[in-house]
Structure formats: structure tokens, C-alpha cells
Amino acid sequence: MAVSIAVIGKDNAPLYMWVAPGRDELNLQFLSHTALDIIQEKVSPANRAPTDSRELYLGLLYASEEYKIFGYMTNTKIKLVIITDASNTTLRDNEIRMMFRRLHNAYTSAVCNPFYSPGDPLISKKFEASVGALVSGN
Questions:
Q1: For 3, phi and psi rounded to 5 degrees?
Q2: Model confidence, pTM
Q3: Which helix H or strand E contains 28, and what residues bound it?
Q4: How far apart are CA 70 and CA 48, in angstroms?
Q5: Which residues are paired to 68 by β-bridges?
Q6: Residue 21 in this model has a pLDDT that exceeds 80
Q7: What secondary structure does DSSP assign to 59-104, as a single string?
Q8: What gap in Å lies between CA 48 and CA 42, rounded to an integer?
Q9: Which of 16, 29, 78, 107 is least enclosed, having the fewest CB within 10 Å?
């Protein structure tokens, strides 16, 4: 399903990055960080409608020939980015939205650990297992 998943902090520092085996990790990191500009545009007050409620899911940010990049931003300004293959036409918007909700719940559980310091890289076996289940479709 997903080719890459990134969790990026409120200061735009990467907290976690998962890349599918056999993929170009550097290129996918670059795509994740280029998505930050589009996320900033989408959440800026000038681009919001007055009746727009606080929607966390930002939808498709942009598509290239190879990939589709989707974004999500939490209330605490943590950005979640999921990159999928552009050739994968079976994924619907609802499925991507559910992936983000599950990823957000896993992130919330991981940062609720009293030994985690906010802003540090996310190193958690339970979070890794949740991401593994998410990308395998379980």
C-alpha cells in the first residue's frame, strides 16, 4: 500500500521515517520534505474558508509520475506524510484517511510514554509494529 511513511515535528525536523524495502530512501525523504511546503499552504489562515472546520486530513498534496503524496497535520502541528505508488489506483480516499487515523493513534500512544521527550526521534518497538501492521494492510 504505502511506499513511505514520515512523521515530521512541528519544527519540520523528521521524527520517524519508514521506507519500503528496495525503494530509494533519499528520494522519498526528499519528497516527504517537499510536501511540507504544500502542507503549510493548505493550513495557512489565508487559504482557509471561514466555515472550514479544523480538518486534520489534508488529502492529496501532489502527485508525480511515480508517487502520490498525502498529508495530515495534528492539532499540535505534527505532520504525517504517506507516499504511495501512483500506479496504485485501488486505494480510495477513505482508505488513506483511515491509514492516517491509525498512524495518528499509534503516534499518540508512542508519545504518551513518560520516557519520551517531545521533539526527539521516535524510537519505539510498539510504534514500529503499528507501522508494520499499517503498511501490510492488517
A1: -95, -30
A2: 0.88
A3: helix 25-43
A4: 18
A5: 63, 84
A6: yes
A7: EEEEE-SSEEEEEEE-TT--EEEEEEETT--S--HHHHHHHHHHHH
A8: 8
A9: 29
